[in-house]
Amino acid sequence: MSLFRCEGICKSYRDQPVVWDISLRLEEGETLGLLGASGVGKTTLMSILAGVSLPDAGRVLLEGQDVTGLPGRAGYMLQKDLLLPFKSTLDNICLPLILKGLKKAEARERARQQMELFGLAGSEDKYPHQLSGGMRQRAALARTHFLGNKVILLDEPFAALDAITKSEMHRWYLDVAAKTGLSTIFITHDVDEALALSGRLYVMAGIPGRLTAEIETPSPRPEDFALTGQFLALKREVLEHLAVGG
Q1: What is the pTM (predicted TM-score) of this model?
Q2: DSSP letter string over 176-227?
Q3: What pLDDT does residue 245 have?
Q4: Which sign does the torsion angle of CA 22, 51, 76, 148 carry?
Q5: What is the pLDDT of residues 143-192, one digit of tens each?
Q6: How far, in Å, CA of 109 to CA of 91, rounded?
Q7: Rounded CA gap, 127 and 241, in Å?
Q8: Which domains does the chain have, with CATH numbers?
Q9: Strands, E, within 40-97: which ranges?
């Protein structure tokens, strides 16, 4: 049984279908990509998976339990980091632990122990405006991790970063995910990013948005994967599926 899945998800707004008959699965420890052009319905689908929006049809299951419309069952991080500007990096990260009832001192200590893993050692007392874009995203991901969910949903988490920082974040995230056993669904409109991060990816296209392909990527990837013929062949295949129904 898959860790997390949805079945037959449909959603319309003002009688206009936005996503149609979408079923997908996420396995434990997997990094799963959902790739599609802007406006295809990726964020609508993600909000349903996160439980903050109800589908018109279909259901969402976590470890076999129906969690449709139940927020908080999966960690959900939007494109903007939403760090609180008046709190330090450490206090932003440990906020989920405090909300769960831990005393502030204990929450701060637990978060402090993870700062090196998330590439934030030495930034504990800095405020969000003192951090680079990449560091802010690391902090936001660490905070999402401390929600303690088995599944993390990321809505274009690296879209605002420059190409060099984005590439560094890709390598960093895959390393953190492997060390912590994160199970992740992330959405993107960047084909290279989807192929760089995903062990498996779904292509979403058309109006209304629907899944047009499920593509496996090599595991493990060579360090120069993006320069290989296999990468280019996969990219060509993805682009062909994106065009279906476009």
Answers
A1: 0.88
A2: HHHHHT-EEEEEES-HHHHHHH-SEEEEEETTTBEEEEEEE--SSPPTTGGG
A3: 55
A4: negative
A5: 888 887 889 999 998 888 888 888 888 888 888 888 888 899 999 999 99
A6: 10
A7: 43
A8: 1-74+151-246 (3.40.50.300), 78-148 (no CATH)
A9: 57-62, 65-66, 75-77
